[in-house]
Amino acid sequence: MKIVHDFPREVRVIENVWIPMSDGIRLAARVWLPTDAEHSPVPAILEYMPYRKRDFTRLRDEPLHRYFAGHGYACIRLDLRGSGDSDGLLLDEYLQQELDDAVDAIDWLVAQPWCNGEVGMMGISWGGFNALQVAAMRPAPLKAIITMCSTDDRYSDDVHYQGGCLLNENLGWGSVLLSCATTPPDPDIVGGDWHAKWRHRIDNAPFYPLVWMRHPHRDEYWKHGSICEDFDAIACPVYAVGGWADGYVDAIPRLMAGLKVPRKALIGPWSHAFPHAALPGPAIGFFQEALRWWDHWLKGIDSGLMDEPMLRVWMEEYVPPAPMHAERPGRWVAEETWPSGRLQPHTFYLNVLSLGERPDSEDRMRIASPQTTGLAAGDWYGFGAEGESPTDQREDDGKSLVFDSDPLTERLEILGAPIASLELAADRTVAYVIVRLNDVAPDGASDRVSYGILNLTQRDSREHPEPLEPGHRYRVTVKLNDIAYAFAPGHTIRLAISTSYWPVIWPAPEPVNLTLYTGTSQLQLPARPPRSEDAELRAFEPPERAPMPEMTTLTVAPLRRQVERDLTTGMTIYRISTTGGDFGDAALARIEDIDLTVGYTITKTYRIYDYNPELAESTVEQTTTHRRGDWSTRLECRTQLTATPQSFRIRGILKAYEGDTLFARRDWDEEVARELL
């Protein structure tokens, strides 16, 4: 990674600026400016999210925003209402208030003497979400956005539900947000009333996982902020960026197909991270790539970017399964438009234990997967750390119905979403089907290429599910995640079908026996023929960034992932302990330039029994620490989810300490009816 110290424009940093909202609330911003911007105004780039610009994202923010400021942009890192040092309360994700605040902030930006009236928004994850959502509001100064690792559909493609099934990440992410939203503001920024602001946050904090579980289907709650409801609402150019190892990649092809504005897409092998530093690699010079976008749309400079193909992706090759990949072998390929008319559907038929080019006569196969199926899945979305990648799928394959092709005689490349069309019946009114597409090497190793999940009660509608009629035969379509992948000669294509996928999703209310009808069920792969122009694609520049603030590691907490099995009871415990955030393996670190000690640790524990979904349990435990001189605070948060066939039970305890004295406490213990989940 090249560290750039000298830029075309000198940069000054304003540690905190108060941006007033129309209702009197102030939002806290950190600002990077060319030193001469007040005499020579520049375009502004806004990043807007709740992850505490003062500390938790400081190490990430500085290399990013100083880089763009050094190239002639005003960069603003803004804390959401109720987060970081901003006033108010953070009551939920993507509320209309959040979007209205963004419009107020944009209006404030263009009124500043250092801004020339042209504004862009960019962000990853939350900041990528609201960049799309604010663009759909069409504020006049907003000329373009970059959205990374985000989605256009808050129900179908976020951390809450997938395929109509409850993700365990709903509890995990909701617990993280709870800790983030109840962390105190910094007294050095907000002054002596930090106590009152902290108390106000804790006393009014929603129990976020509970809020989301009260909306189990795609109702108006989820439609708000889902720009797929009206792609035409967006009028400014959009650059969508993501990675195959991220949970949000499916939105990018939809955006390219649905938007009418000038648009570009870039998908690498990356996880939920910026492409200049993401794993798996190869990493690219993403900051330079973003500058080409901003120069074109905010400065009117012809950077050549818009002359290149609409969609550029990393075509992955087989690599032996491992808990982490430093790099994925492959190459860059591109399509001029999306959907691409070049793709050719390649159909396989699910025959008895095989994938065939032609259907055999109809037969039936049955599967009732153990609840532990899915332990080889890796994380729903990862950040490039050890243990996040799917491992060898053979253990999960052994708990699934498996259909293998003959070893391939020719290379087969796919780009897009594999589709499984299944004829099946279930013996319960609520049942799930999980479909995995694997690449089986000649030595037998099974690598997951893509997967899809469907709650069969949502076979016809995410909004209006209907219970299954036990024993009734249905034809359902399961869309797998989009992917670009090359199956090599000598390798076998495997389709594996199961009824559970723990700990990715919460199990069905009761054990399910599924009957699959072979000979009529199909797998369709989006085959991509060679494109000679791929060899002429412009090479990305090597990664570079501005310097990072100095950090001193005080306490180390290495990542741990452990699976414990009790063979006498059939119980399996999967535990993940990590530090999270941008501090590497530091459980406690000092940010030197603001003399602040920050600590964060999180442990997730998933407990399941082989054949009893009623005993499933997820627990998240977090500790957050802030210290400077005599100022010392600590948050301890523990959340837990259990269930019966009729209802979920979700509990939480939040304890806030000033020094070693308990400052505040919140307790939650709620039941939520299982509505076809």
Automatic annotation (TrEMBL):
Which stretches does the entry tag as region Disordered? 378-398
Positions the record marks as coiled coil are none
Q: Which UniProt keywords apply?
A: Hydrolase
A single MF term (Gene Ontology): hydrolase activity
Does the keyword Ion transport feature in the UniProt annotation?
no
The UniProt entry, under InterPro entries, shows:
AB_hydrolase_fold, CocE/Ser_esterase, Galactose-bd-like_sf, Xaa-Pro-like_dom, Xaa-Pro_dipept_C, Xaa-Pro_dipeptidyl-ppase/CocE
Q: Say which domain of life the source belongs to.
A: Bacteria
Which residues does the UniProt record annotate as the domain Xaa-Pro dipeptidyl-peptidase C-terminal? Answer: 291-546
What is the name attached to this protein's record? Answer: Hydrolase
